[in-house]
């Protein structure tokens, strides 16, 4: 008997039920940032500007995979034989599935409670396994990360090249700062800001330096969770190094690293982690609560962009807002889409930014426009990938604060730690 064209191997029982739970109500279509830019004509997946949108919505993806499963496992398949799905149809589905930032807002608004990002992860894993994923433009992650230990082809020995001379790193300490590849190599000012704030409060810390290895969030997000053992191997080596340094708490600047550490590291390690993981915005900014020695007033209208990984996925919404509101001279405003209903910046970690950068750029412009619409002069975020994407406006941001964001809107994009450090006169 013919085998089903797609398998259900990477779907658990709950996920199988989720395909049936979709009522095709269309709520997710109102929120999906990818669908928004395709529908507006700003981005055309097939490059012909036709505004073709079929197949790119969250609802289409759920429905299309359900049909694939019916062809392989439905009643007709059981009575007769699984119906073969043409390879071209599966490949086209795969291309559409990877045109997604995995932002998760479709799951937040779904009345049926479908965990869409969990589904996308599992489907991508299945597609990688049968040779249909990821996008060709994302394949380099699978070669570069194992070879270099980071996705930027950077020298591991330069991991701490951003470290200022006035900062001392302890060999071992209760607190470790897991800086992350993007901050170390692309937005070093964010790291300088964090360590200067730690120094201001006399908190000794350690880092892994050249021993730090990529969290592999991008590999996981493109579906290489189990087909490659790199993520597991790197996680174990990072964990062992942190244990050797006697760490009790690990601070993360990048929400992607933070989420992988909380959600994946215990599974890779095979046990509960012997240290606590927190995002820098939860730890460092608590320190600011009693701070009264502000050097610089902000005197601007400021809004905050929730990174998908930090907000929707990890539930950290208030600490960054609290920190911003404490700074002198801040007029804080919310964008219309905020917290769990936030609009993604378009980066999708780095996976969509590297995979389909034009699509990312158009989503970023929409997010910047959200800030313009509420009169913000400063658009603050607490993720290096969001920062680069919003600052560039076209997916090619150079991370230099104060640059035009690419759509001429004139909003300055700022990292939260950097904004706090500036206000304290530390940078
Ligand atoms: S919101 Fe949920 S139930 Fe409604 S169409 Fe989208 S996935 Fe299906
Ligand atoms: S995860 Fe985000 S980008 Fe992907 S389908 Fe859902 S709403 Fe659209």
Protein model, in words:
The chain is of the alpha/beta class. It folds into three domains: 13-133, Orthogonal Bundle (Fumarate Reductase Iron-sulfur Protein, Chain B, domain 2); 138-286, Rossmann fold; 294-423, Rossmann fold, CATH 3.40.50. It has helices spanning 13-21, 33-40, 58-73, 75-79, 87-98, 105-109, 116-129, 140-148, 181-185, 188-200, 217-221, 230-244, 255-263, 265-269, 280-287, 318-326, 351-355, 357-373, 384-392, 416-423, and strands spanning 175-178, 249-252, 276-279, 300-305, 330-332, 378-381, 412-415. The strands form two sheets. The protein has a four-stranded parallel β-sheet with strand order 5-4-6-7, with helices on both faces. Strands 1-2-3 form a three-stranded parallel β-sheet. Strand 4, helix 16 and strand 5 (330-332) form a beta-alpha-beta unit. Helix 2 (33-40) crosses helix 18, helix 10 (188-200) crosses helix 20 and helix 15 runs parallel beside helix 16. The longest helix is centred in the last third of the chain and has 17 residues, at 357-373. The protein is globular. The N and C termini lie far apart (68 Å). Residues 394-405 have low confidence and may be disordered. The structure holds iron/sulfur cluster (2 copies). Residues 22-28, 58-59, 62, 110-112, 114 line the site of one iron/sulfur cluster. One iron/sulfur cluster (SF4) binds at residues 22-28, 58-59, 62, 110-112, 114.
